[in-house]
Amino acid sequence: MLYRMKFFKHIILSIIALGAFAAPAKAQTDVKALTGALAETIREYANYADSLAYRIAVANRKNPTVLLGIAEAYNMNQDFDKTKRYAMDALAVQPDFAPSYVLLGRHCQYKFEHYEGNEAYKDSAIYYFKKAMEVNPLYPESYEYYAYMKQTDDPEGVLKMYLNLRDQRPDLKIGGTIASLQVALARKVDPADTLGTKLNLIKKGLDTYEDQGTENLTLDELYHYCRALDFAVDESKEAADKDIYRERILTVAGVAHEREATDPRFLSYMVAANYGLNRHEDVLKVANELFLSADTAKLHYRYMPYDYRYHGLSLIALDSLDTGLDRFSEGMEAGLRLVDDMGITFGERQLAAAQYEGMKNDVNKIVNLYIAQGKYDEAQHIREYQLSKKSEPTISDFYQVISVLESKYQKLAADDPERSIIQRELIEKYTKLEQDFPTDAEITSIYYNHFGIMTSLDQKNGDGNGVAVGTKLFNLEASNPDRDITESNRMYIAAYYLAVTYFFKDDYTNAIKYALHCMDSDAYYAQGDQIFNACAKAKPKTAKALQQAHRPL
Question: What is the pTM of this model?
Answer without folding.
Answer: 0.58
